[in-house]
Design brief:
By secondary structure, this protein is of the alpha+beta class. The chain has one domain. It is built from four helices and three strands, in the order E-E-H-H-H-H-E. A hairpin with a 2-residue loop joins strand 1 and strand 2 (17-24). Helix 2 (53-72) crosses helix 3. It is globular and about 60 Å long. It starts with 7 loop residues before the first strand and ends in an 8-residue tail after the last strand.
Length: 115
């Protein structure tokens, strides 16, 4: 399901499968969503001093793969899991593990027909 805001929608893909859609508004813009990934990396490094970047990459990738498998099998995914998926995906993009162009599609607001 595509969730559209006043400015459009942010659609996240993993392995060519649409995982989630997030509304774009004045408050929830692309930069704010992107910051969630950066914040996840920084918070993890501050709170878990023994969790290096390699372990973070493994953890984020493992979580994204589990959500991908649940989506592929048409199993329920909680709203909190979608939010964490977004943070993990943007963290992996920030760490240059995933390509931004293959993972993100930004769509402008749908125009209403005059008919």
């Amino acid at each position: 399901m595509i969730r559209e805001g006043s400015k459009g929608s942010l659609n996240l893909f993993y392995k060519d499968l649409l995982i989630g859609s997030y509304p774009l508004t004045n408050k929830k813009n692309y930069d704010r969503y992107k910051y969630q990934g950066q914040y996840l990396i920084l918070k993890t490094m501050r709170e878990n001093k023994n969790l290096d970047i390699k372990k973070q990459i493994y953890t984020y990738t493992h979580f994204i793969n589990s959500i991908y498998n649940r989506k592929k099998q048409n199993l329920n995914i909680w709203a909190n899991d979608y939010e964490l998926f977004l943070s993990c995906l943007f963290a992996l993009i920030k760490l240059k593990i995933l390509d931004e162009e293959e993972s993100i599609l930004i769509m402008s607001k749908k125009k209403k027909s005059k008919a």
